[in-house]
Design brief:
Layout lengths: L15 E3 L10 E6 L10 H14 L7 E5 L3 H13 L2 E7 L4 H9 L3 E5 L4 H14 L4 E2 L7 H17 L6 E5 L4 H13 L4 E7 L27 E5 L1 H15 L5 H14 L6 E6 L16
Cofactor: pyridoxal 5'-phosphate
EC number: 2.5.1.47
Enzyme class: transferase
């Protein structure tokens, strides 16, 4: 009998496409890894499935258990999908100002939402998750400190990029939130070629970009190792949003704000180098942000 895949098998193996217009005249090749094609719509599908599958394989959790996670959006949606696939109850804690699409998507997958105030933010959400675990209300997967997060990119995203570029990649650009993507991809790509430059993005002071952060020292993700990032670039909210709108209108690539920031940074980088192959992570789709009005501005 023919074996058909489950939805789980559709996570990963995302397209890598080149920019056609935005880069202008250049000797460089600018490539975008389209993570919005994952089934729950973002790069976070990879670590979400990895954290649940690896914990299950170790015997740390079993179907029917309650999982808890603090999230600003994409990880929550991805975890809600992964929990639905594998049969877990999921409690998600998130700041109240996240977009309605995100909240509704999490609920659609069957997760229970608990909101903290915008002032409490992700730090408050993370603190509440740990307090709930201490009270025996479930198990925190902890995307910020769980090595199974970067493992998903060490096993999946990094090897895909290396293969898709035929080993020609010279620069890797990624926004930094939990830092799982950049940590896992850096580990793999540097094994293949130590000269590949790993560029991480953080919002400049005063900018609010969903999914990426300038973490206070006390909340720096435990999985983050600064030595794995060759360069950190600050990106502004306005540049990220402008590039996001341009990608949709001029390239037909409909993505979120942090992805706009990653492409803006890749274009800045492209002006500094020659004959480079620059890969940027486009971590989600733009439809997740429509209710915020961000595509109508500018």
């Amino acid at each position: 009998m023919h074996e058909y895949p489950t939805i789980e098998a559709c996570v990963g193996n995302t397209p890598l496409v080149r920019l056609q217009r935005l880069q202008g005249e250049t000797s460089n090749t600018l490539l975008l890894k389209l993570e919005g094609t994952n089934p729950a719509g973002s790069v976070k599908d990879r670590p979400a499935l990895s954290m649940i599958a690896e914990a299950e394989a170790r015997g740390d959790i079993k179907p029917g258990d309650t999982l808890i996670e603090a999230t600003s959006g994409n990880t929550g949606i991805a975890l809600a999908m992964a929990a639905a696939i594998r049969g877990y109850r999921l409690l998600l804690i998130m700041p109240s100002h996240m977009s309605d699409e995100r909240k509704q998507a999490m609920s659609a997958y069957g997760a229970t939402l608990i909101e903290v105030s915008q002032e409490e933010g992700m730090e408050g959400a993370r603190d509440l998750a740990m307090a709930m675990q201490a009270r025996g209300e479930g198990r925190v997967l902890d995307q910020f400190g769980n090595p199974d997060n970067p493992l998903a990119h060490l096993k999946g995203t990094g090897p895909e990029i290396w293969q898709q570029t035929g080993g020609t990649i010279t620069h890797f650009v990624s926004s930094m939130g939990t830092t799982g993507t950049i940590m896992g991809c850096s580990a793999y790509l540097k094994q293949q070629n130590p000269d590949i430059q790993i560029v991480g993005l953080q919002p400049e002071d005063g900018s609010s970009i969903p999914g990426i952060r300038r973490w206070p020292e006390a909340y720096l993700p435990a999985i983050f190792d600064a030595a794995r990032v060759d360069r950190v670039m600050d990106i502004s909210q306005s540049d990220s949003e402008t590039m996001m709108r341009r990608l949709a209108a001029e390239e037909g690539i409909f993505c979120g704000v942090s992805s706009g920031g990653a492409v803006a940074a890749a274009l800045t980088l492209s002006r500094e180098v020659e004959n480079a192959v620059i890969v940027a992570i486009v971590c989600d789709r733009g439809d997740r942000y429509l209710s915020t009005g961000v595509f109508a501005e500018g």
